[in-house]
Amino acid sequence: MLNLKSFTEEIILSIKKIEFSKLDISEYNRNYIQNMFPHINYYFKIYAEAIIRLVNDSIPADYIVDFGGGHGFLSIFLKRLGFNVVYCDHNPLSVKAITLLKNEIGYGPDIIIEGSTSELLHYCKNNNILPKYLIATDLIEHVYDLNKLFSDLYTLNPDFSMVFTTGSVKSNLLKSIKLRKIMLKEEAEEYLPVRTQFIKEKYPQLNDHKIEKLAILTRGLIFPDIKKNVDFYIDTNILPNVEVDKYNTCDPRTGNWTERILSKKQYRKIIKNHFKINFANGFYNYERNNPFLSCTAKIVNSFMRHFNIFGSLFAPFMILTVKKKI
Fold this sequence. Notes:
7 strands; Rossmann fold; seven-stranded mixed β-sheet; alpha/beta
């Protein structure tokens, strides 16, 4: 099995030498990186776990996609290991950050793409690139249309091997309660008013009661899909029926879901048409100043490794390994 410890230590040391306060990156990326620093070893352990689930013995000279790459630490890691790296993120501020970080460290992703799956497909097809692997951390819970995501990835390469990590673990009751409180707050304070205003402006002929009803029933949709549903209602008098539970909600302007929680059954239903999927429990950070907490984390991690189903009740995050059907 791969031993990534020495590479991890080398990269973390290189990153810590960078004066991010003097680097011309956005405040969002700078704050995100600064918040990572106290636990940076833990994050790189998560990266290493994802890599090992894709390749056990040696690093092949194949293309790997760091999808939703953000600040780019994973891309830096993958390049140092020997992969040909394709970085892809829709945020131009993050694209700028990885470009500057690559210049600072001296190596990084071979290809930097601003966009999502559409731009990734377009670039790879136009340049005869066939990525074999993909890693996405803390992304899958925010994607607007997962059916489209996996359809696009299948179109790019039906033999893709992919790893996703998500902190939205439905079986972890305490975490689910915490995330659902955030969802309810964002829905009530921001997203519902935005949908209401959109419908009110587009359909002034509707009364306030109907506007309110339609705004509630179009939770989980972006503006173009809201318009389709309202148009259909006006033509047929049939109210929208969006398949979304009473908590999950997304920004109607961007489609970004607020830590969307899905069950394993729901993920399987989405992915089964293109790939097969396996689930594993994540792990806690055991490198702590408090010896008791450190010992407890190690015990819980061991329990989750040996008892996958029961361990998921305590898992801080979930690992989804998605590969071609055999």
